[in-house]
Automatic annotation (TrEMBL), chains A, B:
Name of the molecule in the record: 5'-deoxynucleotidase
InterPro entries on file: HD/PDEase_dom (IPR003607), HD_domain (IPR006674), YfbR/HDDC2 (IPR039356)
Keyword Hydrolase: yes
Keyword Transferase (UniProt): no
Keywords from the UniProt entry: Hydrolase, Metal-binding
Enzyme category, top tier: hydrolase
EC number: 3.1.3.89
Gene3D superfamilies found in the cross-reference section: Hypothetical protein af1432
Subunit and interaction comment: Homodimer.
Cofactor annotation: Co(2+); Mn(2+)
One cellular-component annotation, GO: cytoplasm
Recorded catalytic activity of this chain's protein: a 2'-deoxyribonucleoside 5'-phosphate + H2O = a 2'-deoxyribonucleoside + phosphate
GO molecular function: 5'-deoxynucleotidase activity; metal ion binding
Length: 208, 208
């Protein structure tokens, strides 16, 4: 291939990628309409998934030093920024809803394929792989990302007189069992979180 | 110093950092209440700064390949995630408000010092430096971050029949002059954006 036609093809490919990427960027705007059960700090206004994802990204940058293992912060950021995008199709599942399976439901996998599938092939595959890595939770990056995802609502509920624990009558042991996942990412954050949970019982905003 | 007391001090320092970081994490929740003039895609619901920052972070990950210069994506992500946090104290300034100076106002600098100042000293200094680098806009990372910040409302306004351009009567030349900054980050994204602006004139949603 001549250099000129090679460069022309490269430009066409780049434009083709850009159009797909813009379609994806428009589609994910819908994450701003997906409401969580958890409320903002000191508030009764529900948080949406885009706000939640931004907050987890900020927490990742700020708290990365507390990870027990060395982590690729850029990878964790990608995880927390995209982890809830499947909820555009599949909806938010409340952490303490026992009627639903929380790991990688078929509905969520279809959603991942449809939404990330708007991107150029290579990028779509990368995003699906990152989302699956988060869901699986076995790499050091996924463990830290999940500890951020558990910590945010803990901070919110303790600032909201029990928040969703009070609203839905979630008892201490269930909260403790869910939050324990924080320990897989960071011992020091878990120590802090465990204290917060125990304090909540003492304050009467979490029932033992 | 003995090893034991050295380790004890290290643990105390880590706990001290964590408490400051949690205070910061709670404070920045307020970004979710700062409303922008721009509306969500195909919508008349205003976007807030946390949603906006999440969207820019997603755009950064997705569009980084179009940067004219090699960029440190993690650095750009930090920039776009924190770039509006000063607005918690200083408020949102509308891009086309000619009565206000948009670069690094004194009010914003005070806000940066107060809010990032909640973090441990080293981290506070890092965040203030990143925010200043973004505001200055001279590094390759800042240029790309700013092109994301200009592109999002362009995509929103064109999906909203002119959006804030129509609402506040902003003419073609003003829009063009502001959006031109996209070119400093990416020629290919600028080519796309320029077409979008010209199409908007043809469609009658932007007045020439
Ligand atoms: Ca979720």
């Amino acid at each position: 291939m001549e250099l000129k036609s090679f460069l022309k093809n490269l430009k066409l490919m780049s434009t083709d990628n850009l159009l797909k990427q813009v379609a994806f960027i428009k589609e994910i705007d819908k994450l701003k309409y997906i409401q969580r059960k958890t409320k903002l700090f000191n508030s009764d206004r529900p948080e949406n998934d885009a706000e939640h994802s931004w907050h987890l990204a900020m927490m990742t940058i700020v708290l990365a030093e507390h990870s027990d293992k060395p982590i690729d912060v850029l990878k964790v950021l990608k995880m927390v920024l995209i982890h809830d995008i499947v909820e555009i199709d599949a909806g938010d599942t409340f952490m303490y809803d026992t009627s639903k399976n929380h790991t990688n439901t078929e509905e969520e996998l279809l959603a991942a394929k449809r939404i990330f599938g708007l991107l150029p092939t290579e990028q779509a595959e990368e995003f699906i792989a990152i989302w699956e890595e988060f869901e699986e939770g076995s790499t050091d990056e996924a463990k830290f990302a999940k500890s951020m995802d558990r910590l945010e609502p803990l901070l919110q509920n303790t600032s909201n007189n029990g928040g969703t624990w009070a609203e839905f009558g979630v008892p201490y042991q269930k909260v403790y069992d869910k939050k324990k996942a924080i320990k897989h990412g960071s011992t020091s954050i878990w120590n802090y979180a465990e204290n917060l949970i125990n304090d909540s019982v003492e304050k009467g905003i979490l029932k033992k």
